Amino acid sequence: MINYMLAKLESQMRQAVQLQQDGRFPAALGGYELICEALRFYEELGYGQEAENIHRLPLAVQPTPAMTLYCHALIQYYRRHYSSALEAIKAALAVSSEITMLHVLKARILTALGDLPGAHETYRFIQDRDPGYDGAHDSLFMLAAEQEMPGPDYYDWLERFHHWLRPATYVEIGLGHGRSLALAGPETRAIGIDPYQGAWEHLNYVCPHTPATLFPVTSDDFFVGHDLREVLERETFDLGFIDGLHLFEQALKDFINLERYARKDSVVLIHDCLPIAPIVAERERCTGFWTGDVWRIIPCLKTFRPDLKIMTIPTKPSGLGVVTNLDATSTVLSDNYDDIVRYYLTLRCPESFEQRRVVCRVGSADEEYVKEQFCGK
């Protein structure tokens, strides 16, 4: 399956190269970013030469020295070789300082290196110099997330939960490109549910141990048409991850459906529980970086299910909710679902980040504390 994924990534890279040669560079760049990010995953699994061969494809077709340096810097950035990436992008800027995306990549690299003032200054320079560049606002959101939630990102935390719990069963709702689903360990039977991405030809990542079982349906349809116990071949799940539609009512419904198959010590993780700004938490997407109103699920569960153990880990880019002490027999949420949704949709997202921390029940990001609170036996 890994060879299949690498071949697919090579094909995608060739398509991205063709897009660039056809003059559609923004679309090509989106492809380069996704592919380079995925290739780091496979490099870490020992497929360095295969990844290197794919990396060479865009490098070979860049039309100018500045663009070759940019492409090299992008590859090094996704390899997390940030110092090398910075040197390459500085060289590119020395040749062609008029190209906005070179400055954008420089700011991202500075952020990764922890030079947040330098990154902020660069983004402001971009806004002043190129007001038509829409990406600067989203970049500032990401920079704010880095400032407010330093340390590991939510993928790192998800990997920690897999390591701590060693789950025999794992359920993921909403797959993206498959990066989080691929974190399941060799002892884990994993399933992924997504109506759009629930097929291997749509994913860029695969678990190196045992590939997950995919269900290309909505989570509502899955729980109507399947008994999770039969799918997992166990009575309960150990770890669940909700990252589907970025809407409160759907996240709540997914939680209700999962809890029916939980033990008391099962753990449910919920992405996007701490938005960096109210505008990214709108129900209608109006920014590139968007969390939706999933944050509402935390005060909802705090109020209607005080028996649950709940906190939000302040991890970039948008927080990770953690819930345990579950009760498969509880019907409080399902019995009152319509009234709950009606009420919580009237709740405004707090303006200040500190207020959002309180409402979203943000706790310590200390690794040992989280492990003791949510993964202790």
Brief descriptors of the model:
377 residues, alpha/beta, Serine Threonine Protein Phosphatase 5, Tetratricopeptide repeat, Rossmann fold, 17 helices, 7 strands, 51% helix
Helix-strand blueprint:
Blueprint: H1 2-21, H2 25-44, H3 48-59, H4 65-78, H5 82-95, H6 100-112, H7 116-129, H8 135-148, H9 154-165, E1 169-173, E2 189-193, E3 213-215, H10 219-225, H11 228-232, E4 237-242, H12 248-259, E5 262-271, H13 297-304, E6 309-313, E7 320-324, H14 332-335, H15 337-344, H16 353-359, H17 367-375
Parallel strand pairs: 1-2, 1-4, 2-3, 4-5
Antiparallel strand pairs: 5-7, 6-7
Estimate the strand proportion. Answer: 5-15%
Largest sheet, in brief, is: 7 strands, mixed
Measured as a percent range, the helix fraction is 40-55%
Mean pLDDT: 95
**Tell me, what's the shape?**
globular
H/E order of the elements?
HHHHHHHHHEEEHHEHEHEEHHHH
Separation of the first and last Cα atoms: 35 Å
Q: Look up the CATH topology of the largest domain.
A: Rossmann fold
The number of helical runs is 17
CATH H-level homologous superfamily name of the largest domain: Vaccinia Virus protein VP39
| Radius of gyration over C-alpha positions, nearest whole angstrom | 21 Å
Can you tell me the number of structural domains?
A: 2
The strand count comes to 7
Assigned CATH class of the largest domain: Alpha Beta
Strand order of the largest sheet: 3-2-1-4-5-7-6
Secondary-structure content class: alpha/beta
Runs with pLDDT <50, length 5+? none
CATH architecture of the largest domain: 3-Layer(aba) Sandwich
